[in-house]
Amino acid sequence: MSEAQTTMDVSNDWSSEPWSRVKEAIHTRWSHIDEQELHTLPCNRDAVEKFLSEYTKATPEEIQSVVREFAPAPSLLEQVSHAGEQITEQVTPQLNTAVDRVRYEVDEHPGTITGLAFVGGLAIGVLATAAYFRARPQPTPYQQLIPQRWR
Protein backbone atom coordinates (compact mmCIF):
# COMPACT_ATOMS: atom_id res chain seq x y z
CA MET A 1 0.00 0.00 0.00
CA SER A 2 1.43 3.40 -0.93
CA GLU A 3 2.00 6.18 1.58
CA ALA A 4 -0.80 8.32 0.07
CA GLN A 5 -3.32 5.48 0.43
CA THR A 6 -2.23 4.88 4.02
CA THR A 7 -2.64 8.57 4.81
CA MET A 8 -6.13 8.57 3.29
CA ASP A 9 -7.17 5.48 5.24
CA VAL A 10 -5.86 6.87 8.53
CA SER A 11 -7.59 10.24 8.10
CA ASN A 12 -10.92 8.48 7.59
CA ASP A 13 -10.70 6.45 10.80
CA TRP A 14 -12.09 7.37 14.23
CA SER A 15 -8.70 6.58 15.78
CA SER A 16 -6.96 9.23 13.68
CA GLU A 17 -6.01 12.45 15.42
CA PRO A 18 -8.60 14.89 13.97
CA TRP A 19 -11.50 12.46 14.29
CA SER A 20 -10.57 11.45 17.83
CA ARG A 21 -10.77 15.15 18.75
CA VAL A 22 -14.20 15.33 17.11
CA LYS A 23 -15.27 12.29 19.13
CA GLU A 24 -14.03 13.86 22.37
CA ALA A 25 -15.83 17.13 21.61
CA ILE A 26 -19.06 15.24 20.95
CA HIS A 27 -18.74 13.26 24.19
CA THR A 28 -18.00 16.46 26.10
CA ARG A 29 -21.05 18.22 24.69
CA TRP A 30 -23.47 15.26 24.46
CA SER A 31 -22.44 12.62 26.97
CA HIS A 32 -25.52 10.45 26.28
CA ILE A 33 -24.19 9.43 22.84
CA ASP A 34 -22.45 6.07 22.98
CA GLU A 35 -18.98 5.66 21.51
CA GLN A 36 -20.09 2.58 19.56
CA GLU A 37 -22.79 4.62 17.83
CA LEU A 38 -20.16 7.05 16.61
CA HIS A 39 -17.91 4.26 15.37
CA THR A 40 -20.70 2.98 13.12
CA LEU A 41 -20.73 6.33 11.29
CA PRO A 42 -18.37 7.12 8.42
CA CYS A 43 -15.76 9.77 9.17
CA ASN A 44 -17.62 12.42 7.23
CA ARG A 45 -18.64 15.82 8.57
CA ASP A 46 -22.06 15.75 6.93
CA ALA A 47 -22.85 12.24 8.18
CA VAL A 48 -21.81 13.12 11.75
CA GLU A 49 -23.83 16.36 11.67
CA LYS A 50 -26.90 14.52 10.35
CA PHE A 51 -26.55 11.88 13.07
CA LEU A 52 -26.24 14.53 15.79
CA SER A 53 -29.24 16.46 14.48
CA GLU A 54 -31.33 13.29 14.78
CA TYR A 55 -30.12 12.27 18.27
CA THR A 56 -29.78 15.65 19.98
CA LYS A 57 -32.01 18.66 20.46
CA ALA A 58 -29.23 21.05 19.48
CA THR A 59 -29.51 23.67 16.77
CA PRO A 60 -27.75 23.04 13.46
CA GLU A 61 -25.39 25.94 14.17
CA GLU A 62 -24.34 24.41 17.49
CA ILE A 63 -23.79 20.99 15.93
CA GLN A 64 -21.73 22.48 13.11
CA SER A 65 -19.59 24.48 15.52
CA VAL A 66 -18.76 21.39 17.59
CA VAL A 67 -18.04 19.12 14.61
CA ARG A 68 -16.35 21.56 12.24
CA GLU A 69 -14.00 22.91 14.88
CA PHE A 70 -11.96 19.69 14.85
CA ALA A 71 -13.04 17.74 11.76
CA PRO A 72 -10.78 17.91 8.73
CA ALA A 73 -12.08 19.91 5.79
CA PRO A 74 -13.80 17.84 3.12
CA SER A 75 -12.28 17.45 -0.30
CA LEU A 76 -13.47 19.55 -3.22
CA LEU A 77 -15.37 16.56 -4.62
CA GLU A 78 -17.26 16.12 -1.32
CA GLN A 79 -18.09 19.84 -1.23
CA VAL A 80 -19.46 19.79 -4.78
CA SER A 81 -21.42 16.61 -4.07
CA HIS A 82 -22.94 18.14 -0.95
CA ALA A 83 -23.89 21.32 -2.82
CA GLY A 84 -25.50 19.23 -5.56
CA GLU A 85 -27.54 17.29 -3.01
CA GLN A 86 -28.75 20.51 -1.38
CA ILE A 87 -29.78 21.99 -4.74
CA THR A 88 -31.58 18.78 -5.68
CA GLU A 89 -33.47 18.76 -2.37
CA GLN A 90 -34.61 22.35 -2.93
CA VAL A 91 -35.51 22.12 -6.64
CA THR A 92 -37.12 18.68 -6.81
CA PRO A 93 -40.46 19.58 -5.14
CA GLN A 94 -40.89 22.64 -7.36
CA LEU A 95 -40.02 20.66 -10.46
CA ASN A 96 -42.47 17.90 -9.54
CA THR A 97 -45.21 20.50 -9.05
CA ALA A 98 -44.52 22.02 -12.46
CA VAL A 99 -44.51 18.61 -14.17
CA ASP A 100 -47.79 17.66 -12.46
CA ARG A 101 -49.36 20.94 -13.62
CA VAL A 102 -48.29 20.31 -17.24
CA ARG A 103 -49.68 16.76 -17.12
CA TYR A 104 -52.98 18.08 -15.77
CA GLU A 105 -53.27 20.68 -18.54
CA VAL A 106 -52.43 18.12 -21.24
CA ASP A 107 -55.04 15.70 -19.86
CA GLU A 108 -57.73 18.39 -19.57
CA HIS A 109 -57.12 20.18 -22.91
CA PRO A 110 -55.53 17.78 -25.42
CA GLY A 111 -56.76 19.63 -28.55
CA THR A 112 -55.50 22.99 -27.35
CA ILE A 113 -52.10 21.57 -26.40
CA THR A 114 -51.78 19.78 -29.76
CA GLY A 115 -52.64 23.00 -31.59
CA LEU A 116 -50.13 24.98 -29.54
CA ALA A 117 -47.44 22.39 -30.24
CA PHE A 118 -48.22 22.50 -33.98
CA VAL A 119 -48.14 26.31 -34.15
CA GLY A 120 -44.97 26.43 -32.05
CA GLY A 121 -43.25 23.90 -34.29
CA LEU A 122 -44.37 25.74 -37.40
CA ALA A 123 -43.03 29.04 -36.02
CA ILE A 124 -39.68 27.48 -35.13
CA GLY A 125 -39.46 25.97 -38.63
CA VAL A 126 -40.19 29.32 -40.29
CA LEU A 127 -37.61 31.09 -38.11
CA ALA A 128 -34.97 28.43 -38.80
CA THR A 129 -35.61 28.63 -42.56
CA ALA A 130 -35.41 32.43 -42.53
CA ALA A 131 -32.16 32.30 -40.53
CA TYR A 132 -30.72 29.77 -42.97
CA PHE A 133 -31.49 31.89 -46.04
CA ARG A 134 -30.25 35.08 -44.37
CA ALA A 135 -26.97 33.37 -43.46
CA ARG A 136 -26.31 32.37 -47.09
CA PRO A 137 -24.76 35.17 -49.13
CA GLN A 138 -27.11 36.21 -51.96
CA PRO A 139 -25.52 37.34 -55.19
CA THR A 140 -26.05 40.97 -56.20
CA PRO A 141 -28.09 41.66 -59.35
CA TYR A 142 -24.87 42.21 -61.33
CA GLN A 143 -23.38 38.92 -60.10
CA GLN A 144 -26.51 37.11 -61.29
CA LEU A 145 -25.67 38.16 -64.87
CA ILE A 146 -22.24 36.51 -64.68
CA PRO A 147 -22.20 32.79 -65.50
CA GLN A 148 -21.90 30.45 -62.51
CA ARG A 149 -18.49 29.06 -63.51
CA TRP A 150 -16.94 32.58 -63.54
CA ARG A 151 -18.03 33.52 -60.04
Kindly name the structural category.
Answer: mainly alpha
Report strand %: under 5%
Q: Which shape, going by the Cα principal axes?
A: elongated
How far is it from the N-terminal to the C-terminal residue, by CA?
A: 71 Å
Q: What is the strand tally?
A: 0
Q: Report the helical percentage.
A: over 70%
Radius of gyration equals 31 Å
**Overall pLDDT, averaged?**
82
Could you describe the largest sheet, including whether it forms a barrel?
A: none
**How many H/I helical runs?**
8
Q: What is the N-to-C succession of helices and strands?
A: HHHHHHHH
As residue ranges, the low-confidence spans are: 1-10
Structure description:
- There is one protein chain.
- The longest helix is centred in the middle third of the chain and has 33 residues, at 76-108.
- The protein is elongated, with a radius of gyration of 31 Å.
- 75% of the residues lie in helices and 0% in strands.
- By secondary structure, it is mostly helical.
- The protein has eight helices and no strands.
- Residues 1-10 have low confidence and may be disordered.
- α2 runs antiparallel to α5 (60-70).
- It has helices at 3-11, 17-29, 35-39, 45-55, 60-70, 76-108, 110-135, 141-145.
